[in-house]
């Protein structure tokens, strides 16, 4: 992972990375291969640590973010390699592959997928329940804002003053978690693979976590989880693409908003208004954290003809949709909402199927954007 890569460089006395790029490990290999198998990459889990491995092997392997491929002949020695940059040949091959399958579906078909989006996601969670994704324990390395906070007294006082200066439409007793001192919202929570690790790891008595999903089935699964604690968490159904829909939280009240592989599920035309609405929920100094699919990720290259809705926007076989971002596209969305960049990185992972001698290139984008503090 990128933050671990930064730590590795620091320990070696090497200059740190820029915010816009990771240091490339160039591969003079053929165009990105597309792995075949029973689980389609269109719907494959987005676990940032790659495919799961047996615990014994996991204990012996280096920590993710510190395994770098310096000799392409050794590519099949491990299941995954970090920060692998494509060659110009591979990039062109990926662009060609996407272009070949970029003919959009008819407008009436696209409208059907948009109107039935809720139905498709409910079906997804009805079928998979909590078996599809694994708990995201990598969150606290990449996003330490989710771990217990130990703010310097000066920063805490500054945050309190800025919060007091902002007017709110809610009374302190009108919303869940009103008495909390640190509030986190995850949008697109699914079955709780982010929420429950946060609740288990962060024992801050002032913490309150909100989580919502478009799918009522997913929210029901979160609430039925034995680890769900209504005194520390509030789960609710919400369509983030409906910018007019109210959140059960006042504006300027959240410290952190988390978007993990969720913004990509929205229609591109609805993304900006959705981010604008979320930005209003943040306190001055609050941060929005995102991890999502990057342009030319293996899942994008797997799409066949007849699955494209618009440029870099596709529909999966189960009716759910996905967009593949560039760093600049995400930067434009967040900066247009009045947020300032803290981090905007590409995480390129080379996953390997050693049995079939296949290489699989995953591309994710990770961002942190902060709401500007109110001037004194």
From TrEMBL:
UniProt keyword tRNA processing, yes or no: yes
Keyword terms, alphabetized: Cytoplasm, Methyltransferase, S-adenosyl-L-methionine, Transferase, tRNA processing
Annotated segments matching region Disordered: 41-61, 148-174
Domain (Methyltransferase type): residue spans on this chain: 185-288
GO molecular function, one term: tRNA (cytidine-3-)-methyltransferase activity
EC number: 2.1.1.-
Transmembrane stretches, start-end: none
GO biological process, one term: tRNA processing
GO cellular component: cytoplasm
Catalytic activity: cytidine(32) in tRNA(Thr) + S-adenosyl-L-methionine = N(3)-methylcytidine(32) in tRNA(Thr) + S-adenosyl-L-homocysteine + H(+); cytidine(32) in tRNA(Arg)(CCU) + S-adenosyl-L-methionine = N(3)-methylcytidine(32) in tRNA(Arg)(CCU) + S-adenosyl-L-homocysteine + H(+)
Localization annotation: Cytoplasm
Keyword Cell inner membrane attached: no
Protein family per UniProt: Belongs to the methyltransferase superfamily. METL family.
Role according to the record: S-adenosyl-L-methionine-dependent methyltransferase.
Protein name per UniProt: tRNA N(3)-cytidine methyltransferase
């Amino acid at each position: 992972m990128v933050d671990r890569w930064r730590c590795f460089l620091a320990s070696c006395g090497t200059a740190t990375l820029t915010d816009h790029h990771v240091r490339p490990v160039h591969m003079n290999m053929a165009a990105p291969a597309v792995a075949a198998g029973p689980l389609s990459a269109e719907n494959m889990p987005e676990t940032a640590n790659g495919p799961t491995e047996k615990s014994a092997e996991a204990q012996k392997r280096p920590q993710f973010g510190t395994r770098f491929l310096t000799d392409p002949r050794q590519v099949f020695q491990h299941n995954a390699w970090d920060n692998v940059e494509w060659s110009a040949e591979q990039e062109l091959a990926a662009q060609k592959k996407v272009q070949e399958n970029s003919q959009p579906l008819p407008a009436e078909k696209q409208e059907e997928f948009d109107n039935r989006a809720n139905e498709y996601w409910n079906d997804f969670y009805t079928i998979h329940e909590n078996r599809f994704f694994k708990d995201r324990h990598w969150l606290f390395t990449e996003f330490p804002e989710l771990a217990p906070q130990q703010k310097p007294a000066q920063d805490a006082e500054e945050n309190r003053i800025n919060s007091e200066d902002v007017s709110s439409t809610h009374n302190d007793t009108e919303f869940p978690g009103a008495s909390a001192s640190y509030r986190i919202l995850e949008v697109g929570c699914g079955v709780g693979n982010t929420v429950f690790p946060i609740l288990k790891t962060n024992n801050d008595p002032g913490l309150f976590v909100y989580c919502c999903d478009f799918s009522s089935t997913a929210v029901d699964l979160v609430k039925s989880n034995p680890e769900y604690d209504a005194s520390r968490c509030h789960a609710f159904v919400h369509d983030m693409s409906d910018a007019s829909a109210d959140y059960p939280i006042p504006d300027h009240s959240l410290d952190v908003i988390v978007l993990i592989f969720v913004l990509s599920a929205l229609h591109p035309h609805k993304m900006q208004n959705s981010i604008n609405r979320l930005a209003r929920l943040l306190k001055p100094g609050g941060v929005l954290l995102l991890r999502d699919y990057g342009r030319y990720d293996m899942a994008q290259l797997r799409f066949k003809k007849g699955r494209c809705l618009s440029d870099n926007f596709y529909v999966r076989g189960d009716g759910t949709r996905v967009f593949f971002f560039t760093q600049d596209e995400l930067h434009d969305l967040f900066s247009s909402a009045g947020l300032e960049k803290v981090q905007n990185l590409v995480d390129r992972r080379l996953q390997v199927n050693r049995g079939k001698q296949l290489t699989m290139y995953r591309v994710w984008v990770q961002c942190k954007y902060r709401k500007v503090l109110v001037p004194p």
